[in-house]
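Anyone else keep sequences and C-alpha coordinates together like this?

Example one:
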Amino acid sequence: MKQVDPSVASRVPPGQTLTAKWPVLTYGRTPGFDPKRWTFRCFGLVERETTWTWAEFLKLPRVTVRSDIHCVTRWSKLDNEWEGVPARVILDHVRPRPEATWVLQHADPDYTTNTSLDDLRDDDVILALKHGGRDLEPDHGGPMRLVLPKLYFWKSSKWLRAFEFLDVNPPGFWEQNGYHMHADPWTEERYSDQETRAMQQMRAEAARKLRER
Protein backbone atom coordinates (compact mmCIF):
# COMPACT_ATOMS: atom_id res chain seq x y z
CA MET A 1 0.00 0.00 0.00
CA LYS A 2 1.14 3.56 -0.63
CA GLN A 3 0.12 7.14 0.02
CA VAL A 4 -2.08 8.76 -2.58
CA ASP A 5 -0.17 10.98 -5.02
CA PRO A 6 -1.87 14.40 -5.16
CA SER A 7 -1.97 14.16 -8.96
CA VAL A 8 -4.37 11.17 -8.80
CA ALA A 9 -6.13 11.97 -5.54
CA SER A 10 -9.32 12.92 -7.37
CA ARG A 11 -9.55 9.34 -8.69
CA VAL A 12 -9.40 7.67 -5.27
CA PRO A 13 -12.72 7.43 -3.39
CA PRO A 14 -12.99 8.19 0.33
CA GLY A 15 -11.53 5.57 2.65
CA GLN A 16 -9.41 3.89 -0.04
CA THR A 17 -5.63 3.28 -0.14
CA LEU A 18 -3.67 2.78 -3.36
CA THR A 19 -1.88 -0.48 -4.16
CA ALA A 20 0.29 -1.45 -7.12
CA LYS A 21 -0.52 -5.11 -6.46
CA TRP A 22 -3.76 -6.89 -7.26
CA PRO A 23 -4.88 -8.81 -4.16
CA VAL A 24 -6.74 -12.05 -4.77
CA LEU A 25 -9.97 -11.99 -2.79
CA THR A 26 -12.41 -14.84 -3.22
CA TYR A 27 -14.98 -16.32 -0.86
CA GLY A 28 -14.71 -20.00 -1.73
CA ARG A 29 -12.76 -21.98 -4.30
CA THR A 30 -11.53 -20.93 -7.72
CA PRO A 31 -13.59 -22.88 -10.29
CA GLY A 32 -12.11 -24.86 -13.13
CA PHE A 33 -12.58 -23.96 -16.79
CA ASP A 34 -13.54 -26.39 -19.57
CA PRO A 35 -13.84 -24.55 -22.92
CA LYS A 36 -15.95 -27.40 -24.33
CA ARG A 37 -18.60 -26.93 -21.64
CA TRP A 38 -18.37 -23.20 -20.94
CA THR A 39 -21.31 -21.02 -21.99
CA PHE A 40 -22.49 -17.46 -21.40
CA ARG A 41 -26.26 -17.06 -21.29
CA CYS A 42 -28.67 -14.10 -21.34
CA PHE A 43 -32.24 -14.83 -20.29
CA GLY A 44 -35.31 -13.38 -18.62
CA LEU A 45 -36.93 -10.16 -19.85
CA VAL A 46 -35.23 -9.96 -23.25
CA GLU A 47 -36.51 -10.16 -26.81
CA ARG A 48 -33.87 -12.69 -27.81
CA GLU A 49 -32.57 -15.16 -25.23
CA THR A 50 -29.09 -16.24 -26.27
CA THR A 51 -26.40 -18.68 -25.17
CA TRP A 52 -22.86 -18.35 -26.51
CA THR A 53 -20.32 -21.15 -26.46
CA TRP A 54 -16.69 -20.28 -25.69
CA ALA A 55 -15.77 -20.43 -29.37
CA GLU A 56 -18.70 -18.15 -30.25
CA PHE A 57 -17.95 -15.71 -27.47
CA LEU A 58 -14.36 -15.29 -28.65
CA LYS A 59 -15.68 -14.09 -32.03
CA LEU A 60 -17.65 -11.16 -30.55
CA PRO A 61 -16.33 -7.60 -31.08
CA ARG A 62 -13.71 -6.49 -28.55
CA VAL A 63 -12.37 -3.21 -27.22
CA THR A 64 -9.51 -2.20 -24.93
CA VAL A 65 -10.30 0.19 -22.07
CA ARG A 66 -8.47 1.57 -19.04
CA SER A 67 -10.20 1.88 -15.70
CA ASP A 68 -9.63 1.88 -11.94
CA ILE A 69 -10.52 -0.82 -9.40
CA HIS A 70 -12.00 0.10 -6.02
CA CYS A 71 -12.43 -2.83 -3.63
CA VAL A 72 -14.84 -2.64 -0.70
CA THR A 73 -11.99 -3.89 1.52
CA ARG A 74 -10.43 -0.41 1.07
CA TRP A 75 -7.77 -0.80 -1.62
CA SER A 76 -7.73 0.79 -5.06
CA LYS A 77 -5.64 -0.09 -8.12
CA LEU A 78 -5.47 2.53 -10.87
CA ASP A 79 -4.94 2.36 -14.63
CA ASN A 80 -5.91 -1.23 -15.34
CA GLU A 81 -5.94 -2.15 -19.02
CA TRP A 82 -8.74 -4.53 -19.99
CA GLU A 83 -9.61 -6.22 -23.26
CA GLY A 84 -13.00 -7.76 -23.77
CA VAL A 85 -16.51 -7.57 -25.16
CA PRO A 86 -18.40 -4.33 -24.45
CA ALA A 87 -21.50 -4.96 -22.36
CA ARG A 88 -23.44 -2.87 -24.88
CA VAL A 89 -22.71 -5.46 -27.57
CA ILE A 90 -24.45 -8.07 -25.43
CA LEU A 91 -27.35 -5.76 -24.56
CA ASP A 92 -27.89 -4.71 -28.17
CA HIS A 93 -27.97 -8.33 -29.24
CA VAL A 94 -30.47 -9.62 -26.67
CA ARG A 95 -32.63 -6.44 -26.64
CA PRO A 96 -33.93 -6.06 -23.06
CA ARG A 97 -37.67 -5.56 -22.87
CA PRO A 98 -38.98 -2.16 -21.65
CA GLU A 99 -39.86 -3.53 -18.22
CA ALA A 100 -36.33 -4.89 -17.65
CA THR A 101 -34.57 -2.49 -15.27
CA TRP A 102 -32.30 -4.84 -13.30
CA VAL A 103 -29.77 -7.55 -14.08
CA LEU A 104 -28.77 -10.39 -11.80
CA GLN A 105 -25.26 -11.59 -12.63
CA HIS A 106 -24.73 -15.34 -12.33
CA ALA A 107 -21.18 -16.66 -11.94
CA ASP A 108 -19.33 -19.81 -10.96
CA PRO A 109 -19.56 -21.35 -8.42
CA ASP A 110 -23.18 -20.36 -7.56
CA TYR A 111 -22.39 -16.64 -7.12
CA THR A 112 -24.81 -13.81 -7.88
CA THR A 113 -24.82 -10.02 -7.60
CA ASN A 114 -27.39 -7.44 -8.64
CA THR A 115 -26.91 -4.35 -10.81
CA SER A 116 -29.13 -1.89 -12.61
CA LEU A 117 -29.43 -2.24 -16.36
CA ASP A 118 -28.45 1.43 -16.70
CA ASP A 119 -25.13 0.78 -14.94
CA LEU A 120 -24.29 -1.92 -17.48
CA ARG A 121 -24.83 0.47 -20.40
CA ASP A 122 -21.77 2.63 -19.60
CA ASP A 123 -19.06 2.73 -22.28
CA ASP A 124 -16.35 1.36 -19.97
CA VAL A 125 -18.30 -1.73 -18.86
CA ILE A 126 -16.88 -4.84 -20.53
CA LEU A 127 -16.88 -8.61 -20.25
CA ALA A 128 -13.12 -8.85 -19.83
CA LEU A 129 -10.92 -11.59 -21.24
CA LYS A 130 -7.52 -9.97 -20.72
CA HIS A 131 -5.80 -7.74 -18.16
CA GLY A 132 -2.58 -5.94 -18.99
CA GLY A 133 -2.40 -7.69 -22.35
CA ARG A 134 -2.56 -11.20 -20.86
CA ASP A 135 -5.39 -13.68 -20.47
CA LEU A 136 -7.14 -13.23 -17.16
CA GLU A 137 -5.67 -15.51 -14.51
CA PRO A 138 -8.15 -17.95 -12.97
CA ASP A 139 -7.85 -16.38 -9.50
CA HIS A 140 -8.83 -13.00 -10.98
CA GLY A 141 -11.86 -14.33 -12.80
CA GLY A 142 -10.46 -15.99 -15.90
CA PRO A 143 -11.52 -16.93 -18.43
CA MET A 144 -14.04 -14.04 -18.31
CA ARG A 145 -15.28 -11.56 -15.75
CA LEU A 146 -17.37 -8.42 -15.73
CA VAL A 147 -15.63 -5.07 -15.23
CA LEU A 148 -18.01 -2.35 -14.01
CA PRO A 149 -15.61 0.37 -12.84
CA LYS A 150 -17.91 2.88 -11.19
CA LEU A 151 -19.05 0.44 -8.48
CA TYR A 152 -17.12 -1.44 -5.80
CA PHE A 153 -15.43 -4.40 -7.40
CA TRP A 154 -17.63 -7.13 -5.96
CA LYS A 155 -20.20 -5.93 -8.52
CA SER A 156 -17.77 -7.07 -11.25
CA SER A 157 -18.37 -10.79 -11.05
CA LYS A 158 -15.48 -13.18 -11.53
CA TRP A 159 -16.17 -16.28 -13.68
CA LEU A 160 -19.30 -14.69 -15.15
CA ARG A 161 -21.71 -17.12 -16.82
CA ALA A 162 -25.07 -15.35 -17.26
CA PHE A 163 -27.12 -12.17 -17.15
CA GLU A 164 -30.70 -12.55 -15.94
CA PHE A 165 -32.87 -9.55 -16.91
CA LEU A 166 -35.53 -8.65 -14.35
CA ASP A 167 -38.14 -6.08 -13.36
CA VAL A 168 -37.22 -6.50 -9.67
CA ASN A 169 -33.91 -6.06 -7.82
CA PRO A 170 -33.13 -9.21 -5.82
CA PRO A 171 -30.03 -9.19 -3.59
CA GLY A 172 -27.13 -11.39 -4.63
CA PHE A 173 -24.69 -13.35 -2.46
CA TRP A 174 -22.85 -10.47 -0.77
CA GLU A 175 -25.97 -8.31 -0.62
CA GLN A 176 -27.70 -11.07 1.32
CA ASN A 177 -24.66 -11.12 3.60
CA GLY A 178 -24.78 -7.45 4.51
CA TYR A 179 -23.22 -5.58 1.58
CA HIS A 180 -24.90 -2.55 0.01
CA MET A 181 -27.43 -3.05 -2.78
CA HIS A 182 -25.87 -0.40 -5.05
CA ALA A 183 -22.14 -0.06 -4.06
CA ASP A 184 -21.06 3.44 -5.11
CA PRO A 185 -17.44 3.96 -3.88
CA TRP A 186 -17.73 7.74 -3.92
CA THR A 187 -20.50 7.75 -1.31
CA GLU A 188 -19.00 4.71 0.52
CA GLU A 189 -21.96 2.45 -0.07
CA ARG A 190 -20.13 -0.48 1.49
CA TYR A 191 -22.46 -2.28 3.85
CA SER A 192 -25.98 -2.46 5.16
CA ASP A 193 -26.46 -1.84 8.88
CA GLN A 194 -25.69 -5.45 9.88
CA GLU A 195 -22.25 -7.03 9.62
CA THR A 196 -22.25 -10.77 8.99
CA ARG A 197 -19.80 -13.59 9.56
CA ALA A 198 -19.07 -13.81 5.81
CA MET A 199 -18.14 -10.11 5.77
CA GLN A 200 -15.81 -10.51 8.73
CA GLN A 201 -14.12 -13.53 7.14
CA MET A 202 -13.61 -11.67 3.87
CA ARG A 203 -12.13 -8.63 5.63
CA ALA A 204 -9.79 -10.77 7.74
CA GLU A 205 -8.59 -12.66 4.65
CA ALA A 206 -7.96 -9.37 2.81
CA ALA A 207 -5.93 -8.00 5.72
CA ARG A 208 -3.86 -11.21 5.93
CA LYS A 209 -3.00 -11.17 2.22
CA LEU A 210 -2.03 -7.52 2.27
CA ARG A 211 0.33 -8.13 5.22
CA GLU A 212 2.04 -10.87 3.21
CA ARG A 213 2.85 -8.55 0.30
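And example two:
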Amino acid sequence: MSLGHEQLDVYRLSIDYVAWVFGQASNLTGTHRHARDQWLRASQSIPLNIADGNGKSTEPDRRKYFEIARGSALECAAIQDVLRVSDALNDKEHQHRKGHLDRIAAMLSKLGGRGYSVAEDSGIYGANRIDPDPDSDIDTDCPENSLT
Protein backbone atom coordinates (compact mmCIF):
# COMPACT_ATOMS: atom_id res chain seq x y z
CA MET A 1 0.00 0.00 0.00
CA SER A 2 1.31 3.44 -0.85
CA LEU A 3 -0.01 6.85 0.02
CA GLY A 4 -0.97 9.33 -2.70
CA HIS A 5 2.09 11.54 -2.36
CA GLU A 6 4.41 8.53 -2.65
CA GLN A 7 3.19 8.04 -6.22
CA LEU A 8 4.28 11.54 -7.29
CA ASP A 9 7.55 11.69 -9.24
CA VAL A 10 8.37 15.01 -7.58
CA TYR A 11 8.04 13.42 -4.14
CA ARG A 12 10.37 10.53 -5.03
CA LEU A 13 12.87 12.96 -6.60
CA SER A 14 12.80 15.12 -3.48
CA ILE A 15 13.36 12.10 -1.20
CA ASP A 16 16.40 11.18 -3.31
CA TYR A 17 17.67 14.74 -2.92
CA VAL A 18 17.22 14.61 0.88
CA ALA A 19 19.22 11.39 1.03
CA TRP A 20 22.04 13.05 -0.92
CA VAL A 21 21.97 16.12 1.32
CA PHE A 22 22.23 13.96 4.45
CA GLY A 23 25.28 12.25 2.96
CA GLN A 24 26.92 15.56 2.10
CA ALA A 25 25.99 17.17 5.42
CA SER A 26 27.94 14.60 7.38
CA ASN A 27 31.13 16.08 5.85
CA LEU A 28 30.31 19.70 6.74
CA THR A 29 31.80 20.97 9.98
CA GLY A 30 33.24 24.13 11.44
CA THR A 31 32.37 27.25 9.48
CA HIS A 32 29.94 25.32 7.29
CA ARG A 33 27.77 24.12 10.17
CA HIS A 34 25.20 26.93 9.83
CA ALA A 35 24.73 26.27 6.11
CA ARG A 36 24.59 22.53 6.85
CA ASP A 37 21.79 22.96 9.41
CA GLN A 38 19.78 25.23 7.12
CA TRP A 39 20.34 22.88 4.19
CA LEU A 40 19.07 19.90 6.17
CA ARG A 41 15.93 21.81 7.21
CA ALA A 42 15.23 23.19 3.72
CA SER A 43 15.79 19.86 1.98
CA GLN A 44 13.43 18.04 4.34
CA SER A 45 10.84 20.76 3.87
CA ILE A 46 10.46 19.82 0.19
CA PRO A 47 8.98 16.31 0.57
CA LEU A 48 7.18 17.17 3.81
CA ASN A 49 5.26 20.01 2.14
CA ILE A 50 4.59 17.91 -0.96
CA ALA A 51 2.99 15.23 1.21
CA ASP A 52 1.05 17.80 3.22
CA GLY A 53 -0.16 19.63 0.11
CA ASN A 54 -1.15 16.45 -1.67
CA GLY A 55 -3.40 15.59 1.25
CA LYS A 56 -5.34 18.87 1.08
CA SER A 57 -8.81 18.84 -0.43
CA THR A 58 -8.99 22.37 -1.88
CA GLU A 59 -6.84 23.78 -4.67
CA PRO A 60 -5.77 26.91 -2.76
CA ASP A 61 -4.57 24.76 0.16
CA ARG A 62 -2.71 22.40 -2.18
CA ARG A 63 -1.14 25.32 -4.04
CA LYS A 64 0.07 26.90 -0.79
CA TYR A 65 2.01 23.80 0.25
CA PHE A 66 3.42 23.16 -3.22
CA GLU A 67 4.62 26.80 -3.30
CA ILE A 68 6.31 26.36 0.09
CA ALA A 69 8.00 23.19 -1.18
CA ARG A 70 9.12 25.07 -4.31
CA GLY A 71 10.55 27.86 -2.17
CA SER A 72 12.48 25.29 -0.15
CA ALA A 73 13.91 23.80 -3.36
CA LEU A 74 15.10 27.24 -4.45
CA GLU A 75 16.54 27.82 -0.98
CA CYS A 76 18.47 24.55 -1.31
CA ALA A 77 19.89 25.76 -4.63
CA ALA A 78 21.10 28.97 -2.97
CA ILE A 79 22.63 27.02 -0.07
CA GLN A 80 24.44 24.83 -2.60
CA ASP A 81 25.80 28.01 -4.23
CA VAL A 82 27.11 29.16 -0.86
CA LEU A 83 28.70 25.79 -0.19
CA ARG A 84 30.19 25.71 -3.69
CA VAL A 85 31.88 29.11 -3.43
CA SER A 86 33.32 28.06 -0.08
CA ASP A 87 34.71 24.87 -1.68
CA ALA A 88 32.50 22.58 0.41
CA LEU A 89 30.95 21.04 -2.75
CA ASN A 90 32.67 20.07 -5.98
CA ASP A 91 31.40 21.81 -9.09
CA LYS A 92 30.32 18.71 -11.03
CA GLU A 93 28.10 17.34 -8.25
CA HIS A 94 26.84 20.85 -7.44
CA GLN A 95 25.67 21.41 -11.03
CA HIS A 96 24.19 17.92 -11.29
CA ARG A 97 22.11 18.37 -8.14
CA LYS A 98 21.04 21.90 -9.10
CA GLY A 99 19.58 20.30 -12.21
CA HIS A 100 17.52 18.06 -9.93
CA LEU A 101 16.36 21.08 -7.93
CA ASP A 102 15.39 22.89 -11.12
CA ARG A 103 13.32 19.87 -12.17
CA ILE A 104 11.70 19.68 -8.72
CA ALA A 105 10.85 23.40 -8.83
CA ALA A 106 9.35 23.07 -12.32
CA MET A 107 7.23 20.08 -11.28
CA LEU A 108 6.00 21.89 -8.17
CA SER A 109 5.15 24.95 -10.23
CA LYS A 110 3.05 22.78 -12.50
CA LEU A 111 1.34 21.11 -9.54
CA GLY A 112 0.70 24.52 -8.01
CA GLY A 113 -0.76 25.86 -11.25
CA ARG A 114 1.95 28.44 -11.74
CA GLY A 115 4.13 29.16 -14.74
CA TYR A 116 7.83 28.52 -14.27
CA SER A 117 10.86 29.91 -15.99
CA VAL A 118 14.52 29.44 -15.24
CA ALA A 119 15.38 33.11 -15.69
CA GLU A 120 13.66 36.44 -16.10
CA ASP A 121 13.76 38.39 -19.33
CA SER A 122 15.71 41.44 -18.23
CA GLY A 123 14.58 43.36 -21.33
CA ILE A 124 11.21 44.12 -19.76
CA TYR A 125 12.85 46.39 -17.22
CA GLY A 126 14.45 48.74 -19.71
CA ALA A 127 18.07 49.79 -19.85
CA ASN A 128 19.54 51.57 -16.83
CA ARG A 129 16.21 52.13 -15.14
CA ILE A 130 16.35 51.88 -11.38
CA ASP A 131 13.27 51.57 -9.21
CA PRO A 132 14.33 51.62 -5.56
CA ASP A 133 10.92 50.86 -4.05
CA PRO A 134 9.14 47.50 -4.20
CA ASP A 135 6.03 48.55 -6.13
CA SER A 136 5.49 47.47 -9.72
CA ASP A 137 5.81 50.88 -11.44
CA ILE A 138 8.88 52.78 -12.63
CA ASP A 139 9.41 55.97 -10.65
CA THR A 140 9.72 58.71 -13.27
CA ASP A 141 10.66 61.36 -10.72
CA CYS A 142 14.15 59.79 -10.43
CA PRO A 143 16.57 61.31 -12.99
CA GLU A 144 17.95 57.90 -14.00
CA ASN A 145 14.41 56.75 -14.89
CA SER A 146 13.40 59.62 -17.13
CA LEU A 147 12.21 58.51 -20.52
CA THR A 148 13.72 61.43 -22.41
